[in-house]
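BUG: 3D viewer hangs when loading the predicted structure for this chain

Environment: internal workstation, default settings.
Expected: structure renders.
Actual: progress bar stalls at 90%.

Input used:
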Amino acid sequence: MNAEDTLPVAAPAKPDINKLIVREALSWLWVILAFLFITGTIVQARVIPSGSMERTLLVGDHLLMSRFGYEAELPMTPLHMRLWREPHRQQIIVFRAPLPGTPDYIKRLIGLPGDELEIREGVVSINGKPLQEPYRADPPNPTDNYGPVTVPAGEYFMMGDNRDDSYDSRYWGFVPRDNIIGTPIMVYMSIDAPEETWNPGHIRDRMMTYASIFFHPSIVRWRRIFKLF
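Structure tokens produced before the viewer hung:
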């Protein structure tokens, strides 16, 4: 075969850098939008920073919280919208505390709109009937008295299961329906560590606690993992 008969070999096409950058940016944009949609409307992770819900929830319990049907929000903004679901009595609820500059709270819903609620010697009565509360951490406290009050329309009365260590509606009043965010569905991790570890701003303490699991796995409450509500 003569050299003149040899077909020229086409040089490989150079990738269009601009198209690659746009394609990669669009891929990450979809990931970010999906993340914002999921955390804003379906599920969020939360951690318990105090003992107000013991023994139901322990300090260091890491929860998955369902927002589905309760509220939709645009993460990292104050924009949120109430959805169609309504909470029910004795359900555990995550809500924005009706106090300026306070992190979200998690309590049990005790009083519904229109209820007449009274606490006498630690026993809660709703519309004149004692409320059965098997989830409480301790027996009723004889010094705990409140009311009677009528829960206003569109608002709720919240209390912690650990009544003697719970800052709740007995002290700061009712919770508007628009403040309700969701309800826990599962404990996905539970770590035995001091309360301050889980308070806002203690990022370094949290990271050190997570790292210490590899050296001290006994700080994990393994039996609580995958606990459902």
